[in-house]
Amino acid sequence: MMMRYKEEKEAKKEGFRKYLETSGAVDALTKVLVALYEQNDKPSSAVEFIQQKLSCPSIPEYEKLQAEFSDLQIKYNELLAAHQRTCKELEEIKSSHVLATVSTKETTDSESPKDGL
Predict the structure, then answer these.
(1) pTM to 2 decimals?
(2) Digit-coded pLDDT (tens) for 68-86
(3) 3-state SS string for 35-50
(4) What family is this protein classified in (predicted)?
């Protein structure tokens, strides 16, 4: 019974190792760790170095990006609302222009003499 459990556990570990290798995670981590190893002046935080090399923002950077995103979302919503108002106004202007043109054309047609009459 104990032997079967160990075999299952080893098979599970091996499957996970293969997954990490085929997904490129092992290569990415190896490159980052080699870069950290080769640093003459070791960074104060190895974790932040790894995050930076893996293109992960630090917590302060993440919070800054979240705040910037919120500001941009508000500005986007304001601009979208202004755009929608402007489109509505444009449609109203077009409609009134079409009505004025039709009205002027009807007046002009009824006042112009007909040929041959």
Answers:
(1) 0.44
(2) 999 999 999 999 999 999 9
(3) HHHHCCCCCCCHHHHH
(4) Belongs to the AMY1 family.
